[in-house]
Amino acid sequence: MWPLPLPATTVARSLSACAAAARDPNLQLRVRAAVPIVESATNRYVAAAAVQGLHSERSTDYHVTDVTDSEMRKLYDRMARATGSAHPIYLEIKGRNTRCPMCGTRAVSTLDHFLPQSDFPALAVSPQNLIPACSECNKKKLSYVATSPDLTLSHAYFDNFDDAQWLWSEVVEVSPVTFRFYVSAPAHWSDLASKRAKHHFDRLNLEELYVSQASQSLASIRKLLSDSLAASGPAGVLRQVEKLEGSCRHNRVNAWDTAMYGAMAGNAWFLSGGFV
Asked: Which one of 137, 164, 168, 254 is CB 3.0 to 4.6 Å from 186, fit for a cystine?
């Protein structure tokens, strides 16, 4: 959900490493000969992503002459295989971010094909199509392909959804206290950006994740808040919550904990001891 620089790994380098890992000399020759085709496909993909047009791309335009779809997918398997000679390329892309850019919370554990390699085999090992991700987001996305601009998930390399706060939370006044998370786009956003952020949030079921994280976080600071309430009343709790919110906001404006602490600070019931 935030912009990342494109991987330094080039298409040619990625393909060459995967070809070198193949045992079949004939396949190695065919893969190396296919570099211009894959580069052209990747350039097309990048151009479409830059104008939020990936939903219009046709899978029929992303096949490689003289290298089968199955062989292209196997090249990625060689890259992902920990013992393979192409694995350093995989680690280079995967290791650029420790936090999953899809959910913003869990640790990166794999690479996700933004356009699935099953339908777009020419992009199977193109770094621009390989997004560091956690396993849960990878499973939820699966082979998803958007059919319209508003249904396109956020692309970590091409989209900037962090120019203003869009993730918010509110306290649910029940015992034990819980939170609701939701998307409310800033006024300057386009209608398309608003719809895409909401779809990304819903498609990856991020509210469930954030509610779980919030419950765990509150448990870890409940005594701190209780001590502040006993010593200084609701004003003391507010001071503590505002400090926490400011620290989280400095780190990332659209994080679940930024939204959670903001909700705490604005709820009189919570500040008066609703968290106990």
From this structure: 164
